[in-house]
Design goal:
322 residues, alpha/beta, six-stranded mixed sheet, five-stranded mixed sheet, 12 helices, 19% strand
Length: 322
Amino acid sequence: MERIAAVLLVGALALAAPAAAEDAYPSRPIIMIVPFAPGGSTDAIGRIVAEGLRQVLGRPVVVENRAGAGGSIGTAAIAKAPPDGYTIGMGTASTLAINPAVYKSLAFDVVDDLVPIGNVAEVPNIMSVNPSVETSDIAAFIDFARAHPGEFSYASAGNGSVSHLLGEQFKQATGADIVHVPYKGIGPALTDVVGGQVQLVYDNLPTSLPLVESGSLRPLAVSGEARIAALPDVPTFAEAGLEDMNWMAFFGLVAPEGTPASVVRKLSEALAEALALPQVNDKLVAQQAIVVGNSPEAFKAQIAHELARMRRAAAAAKIQLD
C-alpha cells in the first residue's frame, strides 16, 4: 500500500511540475529570433518590442539576428526551438506569407510548426518612381505604361521579396508590361531607382519615405485603409482601383508549435501591455508603423488570409523558387 501511495505521489509531482513551471514563467531570459540582419524594419521593430516585453515581464528579452534565405533560416530556427516559451521570434509578411507561397519547400510549415502570439504592427507599402518619369499620378502612369510595353522596369529586393510580389500584382491588375530587375536587397534597388537606371520600385514605407521627402523619389500610391498622414496627397492602392495590392507589411510574434497555451496567452497579454507603453508606442509610430497588438486567434486568421493572397499572386505570376 505504501508503495502504491509513493508511486501516486511521484506521478502527481510529475504532473504538477510543468504546471508550476508555466505559472512561474518567465523565470529566465527569453530569446527573440529576428530572421533578418540588423538595421532593417524587422530588426528595428523587434528591438522596440523586446524592450517593451522586458519591462512588462521583468526578464531580459535578447534579440538574436539569424538572417538568410529571405528570412527562412531564422524562421526555421524559431520553429525548431524548444517549445517552452523561452525562444520566440518575429514573423513577417515575407516569412509567414510570401516565402511559403513562392518556395517549393521550406524547413518549416507555417501552419503546423509555428504558433501565433500576436501581430505587433503593420507598415504601409509604397510605389514610387524616379522623378524623371513624367507622369504625375498613378492613373497616368498606368495608361502610359500600357501604351509603352517593355519600356519601364521595376527594381525589387530580390526574387520572391515583398517588392517582387507587389510588382507582379501590379502587372496582373493593370496589364502593363513592366520588366522585373531583382537586386540583392532593397538598398541597392533603391539606389538604382534614385540614380535612374530603373524607373519604378515597390517597398515598405519606412525605407522609402526619406527618399520621397528629399525629392529623390516620387510616390504614386500607398497601401492602407486610408491615406497616411506623412503623404496626404498620395492615394491608396484601393483608391487607384488596385484593391488586391492594398495590403500591409506586418510584423508579429510567433513561437514554436507545442508551446503551452498558457505561456502563449501570457506572452500575448504581455505584448498588448508592452504596446500600450508610451515609449514603445511612440518608437513604433516613428518607424511609420501602425500598432496592432491583436490576439493569437486574430493573428492566426490574418496569416491564413495573407498566405492565401500571396499564393494567388505567386501562382498567377508563375513565381516558384527552389
